[in-house]
Each structure stands twice: as C-alpha cells, then as structure tokens.
UniProtKB/TrEMBL annotation, chain A:
This is histidine kinase. Its main location: membrane. GO terms for molecular function: phosphorelay sensor kinase activity; transmembrane transporter activity. Residues 682-902 form the Histidine kinase domain. It comes from Aquamicrobium aerolatum DSM 21857.
From TrEMBL, chain B:
InterPro entries: Bact_response_regulator, CheY-like_superfamily, Sig_transdc_resp-reg_receiver. Coiled coil: none annotated. Signal peptide: none annotated. PANTHER family: RESPONSE REGULATORY DOMAIN-CONTAINING PROTEIN (PTHR44591:SF3), STRESS RESPONSE REGULATOR PROTEIN 1 (PTHR44591). This is Response regulator receiver domain-containing protein. Gene3D superfamilies: 3.40.50.2300.
C-alpha cells in the first residue's frame, strides 16, 4: 500500500535519478560523446516538455468536463509542426545565425536590439508563466493529496495542508532547478544534460500514461466500445459536444501560438536545437507523440465518470482509477509520470525565464549603472549572471507559489494553463512580423505587444483572482467606475461569450492592429533596418551583412577583458587565437578589425543576449566617445566622395554641352561658308552679265565699220546703262556688307515717316513716268513719327516703290501707296496690280539675289536681287518689320511697319 | 531654216549676239526663257542653240536635258553660255552632253568661231 511519505520519497528519488542522468549526459557532452544526445530522437522527446501535468492529468479532466476540447490542445502544436514547419525552420535558422538565447532575445534582436522590447517580453513571460508554474505546483500537490486521501492521515507528511505542501514542492523544485540549470553560463545557452533529462521524462510520462490507459481500457473497462456503452448507460451524453465551437477554435489557436511562443518551448525547440534538420524528424514524431498521449484520454474520462463516485476530481482519474482498483504500483508509476510532466515544465520554464531575466533585465540595469567594471576577474560577468539566474529561478517559483495561494480556490487545471497560453500568445504577432514583415518597427512591436498584454491582463489574468478578491468580483460585475462596456469579460458589449474566446479575440485584435498601424506610421532606424533584413531574408543573405559596431579606439586588451569576463579565460583565449588576434602586451593597442568585434558581439550574445552584448561592447568600444566622431567623419568622407562624383558629372555634362555647341558652331560656319560661296557665285554672275554686254558692244563698235548712227547710238547707250548697273551693284554689295557688319553710322532721330515717304515717291516719279505708271496715293495719316535714319528709311521706300514699278507686268500698271497707324505702329503699304509674287518665292523673297521671276524685261533700273534683302535688314534694324501681305490691288503688297516714337505719341494723338 | 536659236534673258546680251551672228550671215531666232526656248526649238528646228543657264521659268540645263531626251532633236548642237563660270556648271553641262561651253564675258570672235565650228560639224 502506498503511503504519502513513500510517494514523496519516490518523487525525491526520481529527481535524484534525473540529476544523475543530466550530470552523466553533461559529462558525455563535454567529453565529445554527444552523438546520441544530439540526435533527432532526443530533440523530439525534449520538445514534449509541452505536455505538462496539465496535459497528463488535466486532459482527462477537460475531456470529462468539455468533451473533445482537450484535443485542440494537441492539434494546435500538430498543425504548427506539420503545417508551419517552414516557419519553425526559419526561426531556428535565424536563431542559430544570431545566437539567440530566448524569445525575448529574438524579438529584441530583430527590432534593432531593443532593450525596451526585451524587458517587456521578459515581463510578460514572467507574468504569463507564473500561473503555469502554479499549475504544476497544484498538480503535484493534488496528486500527493490524492494518494494521502486514499490512505488516511497516519503519516507526518500527509498531515501538511495544501499550502505548506505546495511551498515545500516549490522550494524543492527551486533548489533542484538551480542545481540543474545554473551550473554554468554556457556560451550558447545549451544544456545537453537538461535536455537529456527532459527526454527521459518524456519517455516516462508517455509510458506511464499509456500503461494507465491500457490498464483502464483493457484491464478494467473491457475494451473501448464497452466503456462507451457503459458511459451511455450511466447517463453521459457523449454525442452532445460541439467540437468546432468558438472556444474550441480559440483553444486550438492558443495552443498553436503557445508551442512557438512559450519560453520553455522556444528554449527547447529553438535554442537547444543543435541541427536544423532535426526539425524534419520532429515534424512527424512530435505530432505522433501527442497522438499517443491523447489516445486514451477519452476512454479514461468516460470510464472514470461512469464508475467513480460522485464528486471525484476528474483531473486525478489517471491516478485514482488504478488506486481504486488496488493497483498501487501502477498508481505510483502514474504519479511518477505526472511528476515528470510537472518537473520538466518547471525546470525548463524557469531556466528559460531566468535567462531572460538575467540577460534582459539584470545585466542592462548593471550596465546602465556602469557597475560592471568593478566586477573584475575571470568570468566576472558570467558569475554575476549565474547569481542573477539563481535568484530569478527562486523568484519565479515564489511567484508561482503566490499565484497558487491566491487562486487556490479555482477548481480545474486547464483554465490556468489557458491563461498562460493566452498571455504568451501576445508574442506571436511580433514574432510573425519579425520573420516575415520587413517594415515592422520596434514601436509597432512594442506597443502591439504591450497593449495586447494589457487587454489580456484585464480580461483574463485579473478575473482568475475573482474568487480570492471581492474587489475584483465587483469590478467584473459592474466594470471600472461603473462603466459596463469595460467589464473584463464583456468588453464593448461583447457579452454572452466564453471568457477565454472574449479575451483572445480582444487582446490579439488590439495587438495586431496596433502592431500594423504603429509600424506603418513609424520608421525604422538603421540598426533595425539591418536586423530586419537579416531576419526576413534569413535564407537569402549571408551573415557577413552583420552590422559592425562603429570602429572606435578600442584595444585588443580591452576587448579581451570583456570577453574573459563573460566567456572565461579559456574560451576567450580560444576565440582570440582562432581569429588570429594577438592580445599580447606589445600589441595591446593595435587596431581591431571590425568584423572581429562583430564576431565577438555574436559570441557574447550567445551568453547574455544580443541587446546586452551590443550595449556591453558599445560601452567598451565607444569608451572614448570617438565612435560618433568616427561615424561623422566616415559620413563626411562619403559625402565628399558623393560631391566629387557630382562635380565630375557636372564637368562631363558641361563638356558634353561644349562639344555640342562646337558642333553647332561648326555646322553654322559650314553653312556660312556655303552661303559665302553662293554669294560669290551670284556676285560673279551679276558682274559678268553687264560686263558681257559692255565687252561685246565695245568690240562691235571697234571692229564694225559700217554701223548706222542709230545703231552706234543704241550700242553706246547700252554700254552706258550696263556700266551704271555695274556701279549700282557694287554700291549695293558694299551697302549690304556694311549692314551685315553693322559698321555704318546710323543717325537715328525722330523723323516724320510721312515726309520721308513723300520724298521717296517724288524720287520714283521719274521712273514711273518713263514706264507710264501712275503712283496712286491712298488714305494717308497726317504724320507718323518714328525713330529712324531718314536716309535709310527713304532707301527702303524707294526700293519697294521702284520694284513695284519695274516689275509690274499689268496692261495698265498702277502702284498704290497708303499709310496708317495700328497698334502703336506706323505702317506703310505699297501695292501694285501686277501678277504678284510667285508662291514659290514668298518664303525667300527677302533673301539675297532672289528675284521673283518677273517676266518684265530687266534693264538699267532693275534691282539686282539685293535690294529687298537690304531693305529687310534696314527695317529690322529700325525695330520694325518688312513683310509681304495681301494688299488692295491684285499684285504684290509690301508692308513696312515701324514702332511709333514714344515722345511723339501724344502729338500723334492730338493731330489725328 | 533657222541656223541659231539664242536663248538669253538679258536683252542687251541678246541684242549684241543677234547683231554679231546676223552680220556673219546666219539666220537667228531668240527666246527669253526656258519654256519659250523649248517651244521655239520644236517649231523652228534650229541647227544649233546658244543656251544661257540662268533663265526664268526653266533653267538652261533643264532645257538641255529635254532636248537630249527628245529623239527628234539629236542633231541639234547646243553651246552653253554661263556667267557664273564655275567648274560645277561646266561639269554639269558636259554630263548632259553639251557640245560647247562659253563663259561670259566673251570675245565676239570666240563666239563666231565656236558657232562656225558647230555648224560645220553638224552640217551633215
């Protein structure tokens, strides 16, 4: 027969066995025979730390109360390991590359090595896991009591009340965990001994549960179908359950989150993982383990409900069923199984939490207080860390005990576990963002997690004290300050819903929303951006991308001092030697390559977390506060390089423009050259033509003897006319040249355009009379004052009128002259009734040597093709325009338009 | 029968050429532009042309081209007159199978000699 003393002593002996396993494994691991310890089987078994006493005992209880709900607890992890395998792999890959030590370290590292986020995550983990540890205490206490109740109160230990028993268990577990988990600060936070012990416990609890299951189903119940038949006969409605209700979905989601986010799961699955490929085995083996753990849950629950007396605790069926059948050995084995579940959870959880607390809370506080320089000696910081961890383990178990004390009246195991799950589930949004959302910012992660945590604390954690505190009960009934919409279990009118579903819904909604909104409205800092890339693109990028701490004036001696304090002399020496860093005194102030600092930082991060390692090294490296200057100088140099490059670009652009301008100038010169050739050719023609006549006629006059006086007269007259033509041509060429070079002195003075026009008409009268042409005068203004050289203006008028006279091919040739004021311009139009200017010449009429193909006989008075060009240039220089317009007669009409002289405008206005 | 068609837009030059050639006993006709020249060539079928290049309406070179393209006028000799005297004009005329080339200003005797040579060559 089992006595409580015997049970307790068995437990202690079992713990002793665990310690032995751990110690032996540790020795083997250090001496190199670690092959078996680093196998996928051990890894998979250790992951089953997920199955705590809550699943060992509580699954049956849950099945008895809520039917198939217990399955969700197993299905969540199954979904993660089977379906989200790739996500776990990325998590592990990154954590190995970055030497991640905990879930807090992971999030902090991803979000720019933020200490603030690490502290928050650590805090949430501590608060969330406290109920869970309490749950294990409760399980152990209850199971011991279950034995002692059956036995009666003869023994000393059995007379202890619940609280004392729980306290005793807590103290025992604390001592055990401290001995177990904090023997040293391992460089990589891997504990092969602990893992081996956990794997052993996994085997024990599985076999124990299977043994009880086989015994109950086949030994007592006579097969599964008999049990179900018996249950139905006993009035149990086994078909009533609604497995896919909202609560079921919530539990499923929570357990999926938990298997990733729970600190102990992260510790085992990610940190203790020695090979990514082990995940392949765990991917199917862990779900298979869970299936075996759950296979007898339903039959045990139904058999217990059908056969055990009314009021029996279904959470203890696994223990009480064999006892009631008199199988004490099996009951003891079941107790050991439950004890295994509880202890493995407490050990791993408290180790994981103590690492988080020491790395993210204690060390940063010490660093901020700058106390670490006094903590001298080899592994000074490491020893400090160990002390911090021991204290935090004790504090964790104390907190667990306190929670147990306050919530002791809460009846079942499972609800407490779900409170923890919902708490750590607040890490998941940030964790997923860390893995897959490059633009998630530390602000988003911090406030999302913080507010999600607040909502969780308000809607689920606090209500768990309802039975203990009347104040909380009142709060839950009426809401804070009577605001009913803030009642913890009915936020914003969301009533009539399971409190768990309610809490999960609100907390995760708030968490995700804040994460997304804040991330999108804040920007990342440099370190954050680099880390985000390293995490999100973990499989694409190499670790060489690792950001360097800005190079300061750090010496190898300083660095070694830091490394030694954390890693110990041996390991630090090995690290320095492996990297070829000479730390001898002769080389004490040599420059340290930046990538070595990065490497050292990573190595330190493996012991004290990335945020702490970063702070530690930054304080050492940047001791002379030179790094900022260094950074500024580097930025300056970069800036200068950029500016220089800009200058070069600008120069090259200017050269390109200059080359283009040269090319254009060259093209223009060539065009001018061609124009000059054309001009010379034209001039040659214009000179040779009269010369031909002169020479020819003079030869005739010289050689022919019998010319009539009329012939002699005609020939001499022709020679004279052609000579005049030649003279005029030369004058025109010189005139044009003067105009083109602008050398001619212009006497611009206010002139009355009308007077000039009258004089010009008078000059042309003789020519007109000779050609029997009448110059008609149309409407005229009284005066048109313009600023002009009167002689030049007259030249223009004469040229145009003479052209109109000499090129007029009409039968009754007429020339019409009119003038008017329009838009502040004095305008003269000279038109004729000839055949007009051929379309083909309209464009080029003002060019040199263009004659508009008049068929009128040319003679001494005819222009040589330069006249209009000269006129055009003159008018242009007077600021006016010479153009061909549609006139009142059918022929050509030239319009001279000159701006009125400003001073004369008012006179103009008076006179008109 | 017209011996020579003078195509020239300068009245004074036309006057002098007509006088010189007439004095040498040849029958002379004249045209003032390219179009009239072609019309006159077809109507009068002269033995030869004295053809100025710079002409209104149709240049002398175009007239030459048209004559060379007409199978009925293969025998007509063409002497080109140019006042520009550029190598370019000379080459172009040679290319178009002009029979002779006279640059203005010229000596009257040169013109008479050239005309005599042409008419003798194309006598047959």
């Amino acid at each position: 027969m089992l006595s409580p003393d015997f049970v307790i002593l068995t437990g202690v002996a079992y713990v002793g066995l665990l310690f032995l396993i751990a110690w032996v494994s540790e020795q083997h691991a250090h001496s190199g025979y670690a092959h078996f310890l680093r196998s996928p089987a051990i890894y998979t078994l250790s992951i089953s730390v997920y199955c705590t006493s809550w699943t060992f005992y509580g699954a049956v209880g849950t099945a008895a109360r809520n039917g198939l709900e217990f399955l969700a607890i197993y299905m969540g992890p199954t979904i993660v390991f089977v379906g989200w395998w790739f996500m776990l792999r990325k998590l592990i890959h990154i954590s190995h590359a970055q030497r991640i030590t905990s879930v807090a370290d992971f999030l902090s590292s991803r979000f720019g090595k933020s200490s603030r986020l690490a502290v928050l995550v650590t805090l949430i983990a501590v608060v969330s896991i406290t109920p869970y540890i309490a749950l294990q205490l409760k399980a152990i206490t209850t199971s011991i009591q279950a034995v002692s109740v059956a036995k009666g109160g003869e023994d000393h230990l059995a007379r202890l009340d619940e609280l004392t028993l729980a306290f005793g268990v807590a103290v025992g577990m604390a001592l055990f965990t401290i001995l177990f988990g904090t023997r040293n600060v391992d460089a990589r936070e891997q504990h092969p001994g602990v893992v081996a012990a956990i794997a052993f416990e996994a085997v024990v609890k599985l076999i124990a549960l299977l043994a009880v299951g086989v015994f109950v189903v086949f030994g007592l119940g006579g097969g599964a179908s008999d049990i179900f038949t018996k249950a139905v006969e006993a009035g149990l409605d086994i078909h009533e359950q609604q497995p896919l209700g909202s609560r079921w979905v919530a539990v499923l989601a929570l357990s999926a989150c938990a298997v990733i986010c729970l600190p102990r799961q992260f510790q085992i699955t990610v940190v203790e993982n020695s090979n990514e490929d082990h995940l392949r085995t765990a991917g199917w083996a862990f779900p298979a383990y869970l299936l075996l753990m759950s296979i007898f849950t339903m039959p045990i629950a139904y058999y217990g409900l059908a056969t055990m007396p009314e009021g029996s605790n279904p959470d203890m069926f696994v223990l009480t069923l064999p006892m009631s059948a008199g199988y004490d050995a099996l009951a003891l084995f079941a107790f050991i199984g439950g004890f295994s579940s509880a202890t493995s959870m407490i050990i791993v959880a408290s180790i994981a939490l103590s690492i988080m607390v020491s790395n993210h809370v204690v060390l940063p506080l010490l660093l901020r207080g700058a106390r670490f320089p006094e903590e001298t000696g080899e592994r000074g910081i490491a020893r400090l860390m160990l002390r911090a961890r021991r204290v935090s383990i004790a504090v964790m178990l104390l907190l667990g005990f306190l929670y147990f004390w306050f919530a002791k009246d809460s009846d079942a195991l499972a609800p407490i576990g779900l409170i923890s799950f919902a708490g750590v589930a607040q890490f998941l949004p940030a964790l997923l963002a860390a893995l897959y959302w490059r633009h998630a910012t530390v602000q988003g992660a911090f406030y999302g997690t913080l507010l999600g945590f607040f909502v969780w604390a308000w809607t689920l954690f606090m209500p768990s004290f309802e039975t203990t505190s009347p104040a909380i009960a009142v709060l839950m009934e009426h809401g804070p300050w009577g605001i009913t919409s803030l009642r913890p279990e009915a936020m914003f009118g969301l009533t009539d819903i399971d409190p768990l579903v309610h809490s999960v819904f609100w907390s995760l909604l708030v968490n995700v929303s804040v994460l997304v909104v804040v991330s999108m409205s804040t920007s990342q800092e440099a370190m954050e951006r680099i880390q985000a890339t390293l995490f999100v693109d973990a499989f694409q990028r190499r670790a060489s991308m690792q950001p360097h701490i800005a190079r300061g004036s750090v010496t190898t001696g300083d660095l070694f001092l830091v490394a030694e304090r954390v890693l110990g002399w041996k390991q630090a020496t090995a690290l320095f030697e492996a990297s070829g860093i000479d730390r001898g005194p002769s080389n004490g102030d040599a420059d340290v390559p930046p990538d070595f600092i990065t490497k050292l930082e990573k190595e330190l991060a493996g012991s004290i977390g990335s945020a702490s390692a970063h702070i530690l090294l930054t304080t050492v490296v940047a001791k002379d506060s030179i790094s900022l200057e260094e950074v500024m100088r580097m930025a300056d140099e970069t800036q200068q390089a950029i500016e220089y490059s800009h200058e070069l670009e600008e120069k090259s652009r200017e050269l390109r423009i200059a080359a283009q301008q040269l090319q254009e100038a060259n093209a223009k010169l060539q065009e001018l050259h061609r124009q000059k050739d054309d001009f010379l050719s034209q001039v040659s023609h214009e000179i040779r033509t009269p010369m031909t006549s002169i020479r020819s006629f003079s030869e005739i006059l010289m050689t022919e003897q019998d010319l009539s006086p009329e012939q002699i007269d005609r020939f001499i007259s022709t020679i004279h006319n052609e000579s005049v033509r030649l003279t005029r041509l030369i004058e025109e060429i010189l005139d044009l040249s003067a105009l083109e070079h602008g050398e001619r002195n212009w006497e611009n003075a206010p002139s009355n355009g009308e007077a000039v026009l009258d004089r010009s008409i008078a000059v042309c009268e003789a020519l007109a009379r000779r050609r029997m042409i009448s110059i008609e005068l149309g409407a005229r203004v009284c005066c048109g004052w313009v600023l002009a050289d009167a002689g030049r203006l007259s030249q223009v008028f004469i040229n145009i009128i003479a052209n109109a006279i000499s090129h007029n091919d009409a039968s009754d040739p007429r020339v019409h002259v009119t003038s008017f004021i329009e838009n502040g311009c004095y305008i003269v139009e000279i038109s004729d009734n000839g055949s007009g200017i051929n379309e083909a010449y309209r464009e080029s009429i003002f060019d040199k040597f263009v004659r508009a193909g008049s068929s009128v006989q040319s003679g001494a008075g005819v222009g040589l093709g330069l006249g209009l060009n000269i006129s055009y240039r003159i008018v242009e220089r007077l600021g006016g325009t010479l153009s061909l317009v549609k006139g009142r007669l059918n022929g050509a009409c030239f319009r001279v338009s000159l701006p009125l002289h400003a001073q004369c405008e008012h006179v103009q206005a008076l006179r008109s | 029968m017209t011996d020579i068609l003078i195509v020239e837009d300068e009245p004074a030059i036309l006057d002098s050429l007509s006088f010189i050639l007439g004095r040498n006993g040849w029958t002379v006709a004249s045209a003032r532009d390219g179009d009239l020249a072609l019309e006159a060539v077809r109507r009068l079928k002269p033995r030869m042309l004295l053809l100025d290049i710079m002409l209104p309406k149709k240049s002398g070179l175009d007239v030459l081209k048209a004559i060379r393209a007409d199978p009925g006028m293969t025998k007509t000799a063409v002497v080109v007159l140019t006042a520009r005297g550029q190598q370019y004009d000379r080459e172009l005329a040679a290319e178009l199978n002009a029979d002779g080339f006279i640059t203005k200003p010229y000596a009257n005797t040169d013109v008479v000699a050239e005309v005599r040579r042409m008419l003798a060559l194309h006598h047959a």
